[in-house]
């Protein structure tokens, strides 16, 4: 009689990565996902027959583990990755600035010219920003003491005035950490700037998906999992994890509200922190209720379809504006043939915008776009709507590092995964994949019964099975 499988709870990037790692190592794996699709919070829905992503997800070249996963899935060509960092910055009355790295010089000198030529700031502010960048490079993102400070406080101590913070530091921090600098952890901000910009020449090169996220994170992972021999069960909501005399048992509710119990050799719990706190068995971790203090930070996206092109670049930053960042998603949504342009304004740290009326958000964003894009007054709006992600990320404040548990629990057959678990890393696609790898490595480091019972004579494709509960 074969051993029960390792069960991975959650079909986001963390769960997908953990399941692939375990299956590659020869474990029997079953992945359970409550939704009818994989991808977690980084996927797409549909509106009037058109794909709409749950949010705009930017990829950086330093996302090495995430890019490796895309390569494994065969979808790397679907990311348009810059040859070098180049951010167009929209200023009022049609003026422009650029943050463009140099091909020359070791880090951080590759950014020297970019900051010195950054017209969004006056000359003295650029020099001051260079000095702050040099100081930031000496911070250790893994130092717990650094995590207790707020990035905005640190910036003021290093001579950064409000306009410099808004026009440069906040431009990056608010998007990367989904919090304004005054509320964001200094350690996580240091990670963003050091890993993403200061420590490697090409680390901050930006990539944008050229297709809906569902074409990256739904069918390709499912195919890869099946090819590796894993089972995938969608529409399967885990309601309880227990330890019994013979091992772990996972209770699963299907779409018909029927609950079945599945024995598990081991479990990877790869769900958001609030859900994990409800599911983790008593005694497996010290204080799961404490995870609730991680909280949530929302993102709001304002979608506008114009009858003509108004933004000449794939994306742009808009400092000091409600828009924050604007992305051209025309081709990715399949609208390019009609000559229209589909723009998405991505608003991070959107606590206020989350509760504003759709018509008010659209009105404000149209006015802001008109203030920054000459010629927009001649365009007609064909469609406008708003999507809201109340729980887009955890709230990456000072002191949250101590709440992030990593993959390890007190039980050798239970591991945690999810971007929120990774100490020292922002809540990103990269952190999610890193967490899945860490969870798989944790379980593989512990002898499990699969290696004793074994089924080496059965090929992975023969074991593969797709189960969609309907």
UniProtKB/TrEMBL annotation:
Pfam families referenced in this protein's UniProt entry, alphabetically: Amino_oxidase (PF01593)
Annotated ranges, domain Amine oxidase: 13-444
Top-rank lineage group of the source organism: Bacteria
Gene Ontology molecular function: oxidoreductase activity
Sequence segments annotated as region (Disordered): 451-470
Name of the molecule in the record: Phytoene dehydrogenase
Organism encoding this protein: Intrasporangium chromatireducens Q5-1
Database matches in Gene3D superfamilies: FAD/NAD(P)-binding domain
């Amino acid at each position: 009689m074969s051993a029960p499988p390792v069960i991975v709870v959650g079909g986001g990037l963390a769960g997908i990565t953990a399941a692939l790692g375990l299956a590659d190592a020869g474990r029997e794996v079953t992945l359970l996902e409550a939704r009818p699709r994989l991808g977690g919070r980084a996927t797409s829905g549909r509106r009037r027959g058109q794909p709409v992503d749950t949010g705009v997800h930017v990829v950086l070249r330093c996302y090495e583990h995430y890019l490796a996963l895309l390569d494994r899935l065969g979808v790397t060509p679907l990311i348009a990755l810059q040859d070098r960092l180049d951010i167009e910055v929209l200023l009022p009355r049609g003026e422009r600035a650029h943050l463009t790295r140099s091909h020359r010089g070791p880090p951080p000198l590759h950014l020297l010219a970019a900051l010195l030529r950054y017209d969004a700031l006056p000359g003295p502010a650029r020099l001051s920003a260079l000095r702050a960048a040099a100081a930031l490079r000496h911070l250790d993102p893994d130092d717990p003491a650094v995590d207790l400070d707020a990035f905005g406080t640190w910036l003021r101590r290093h001579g950064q005035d409000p306009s410099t913070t808004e026009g440069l530091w906040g431009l990056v921090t608010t998007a990367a950490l989904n919090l304004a600098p005054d509320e964001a952890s200094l350690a996580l901000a240091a990670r963003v700037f050091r890993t993403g910009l200061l420590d490697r020449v090409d680390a901050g090169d930006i990539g944008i998906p050229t297709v809906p996220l569902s074409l990256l994170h739904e069918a390709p992972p499912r195919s890869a999992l099946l090819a590796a021999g894993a089972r995938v069960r969608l529409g399967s909501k885990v309601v309880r994890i227990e330890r019994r005399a013979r091992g772990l048992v996972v209770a699963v509710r299907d779409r018909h509200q029927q609950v079945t119990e599945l024995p598990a050799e081991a479990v990877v719990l790869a769900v958001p922190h609030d859900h994990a706190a409800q599911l983790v068995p008593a005694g497996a971790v010290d204080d799961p209720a404490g995870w609730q203090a991680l909280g949530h930070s929302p993102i709001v996206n304002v979608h506008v379809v114009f009858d003509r092109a108004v933004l000449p670049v794939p994306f742009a930053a808009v400092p000091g504006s409600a828009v924050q960042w604007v992305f051209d998603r025309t081709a990715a949504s399949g609208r390019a043939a009609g000559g229209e342009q589909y723009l998405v304004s991505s608003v991070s740290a959107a606590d206020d915008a989350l509760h504003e009326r759709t018509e008010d958000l659209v009105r404000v964003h149209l006015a802001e776009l008109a203030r920054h894009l000459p010629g927009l007054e001649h365009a007609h709006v064909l469609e406008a709507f708003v999507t809201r992600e109340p729980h887009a990320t955890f709230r990456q404040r000072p002191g949250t590092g101590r709440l992030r548990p990593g993959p390890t629990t007190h039980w050798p057959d239970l591991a945690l995964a999810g971007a929120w678990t990774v100490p020292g890393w922002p809540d990103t696609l990269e952190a999610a994949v890193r967490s899945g790898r860490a969870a798989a490595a944790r379980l593989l480091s512990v002898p499990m019964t699969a290696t004793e019972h074994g089924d080496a004579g059965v090929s992975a494709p023969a074991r593969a099975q797709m189960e969609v509960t309907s």
